[in-house]
Specification:
This protein is mainly β. Helix content is 0%, strand content 39%. The protein is built from no helices and 6 strands. The strands form 2 sheets. It has a 4-stranded antiparallel β-sheet, with no helix packed on it. Strands 1-2 form a two-stranded antiparallel sheet.
Length: 76
């Protein structure tokens, strides 16, 4: 049993001990068979561009297994 006040700022609460971590990661798959199928770049307005520009660009990589990786690219 946890000791303390039965409410926090007037709202009731209860401390519950868990045995799992809620990090949103189900597992890591590393088979070495996936490669980049297509790369596209976008500016901060969402307009497709041919290559990264000076400043902030967005890179979208479509992999051969169907997964998509989106990253922000900062170029000087």
């Amino acid at each position: 049993m946890y000791e303390g006040a039965p409410s926090l700022y007037g709202y009731p609460f209860e401390l519950v001990k868990t045995t799992y971590y809620a990090d949103g990661i189900d597992g890591v798959k590393e088979d070495g068979k996936t490669s980049v199928a297509e790369v596209t770049y976008y500016d901060t307005n969402g307009t497709r561009i041919a290559q990264p520009r000076s400043g902030i660009s967005i890179r979208k990589q479509r992999m051969t297994d169907g997964t998509v990786i989106t990253e922000k690219i900062i170029t000087k």
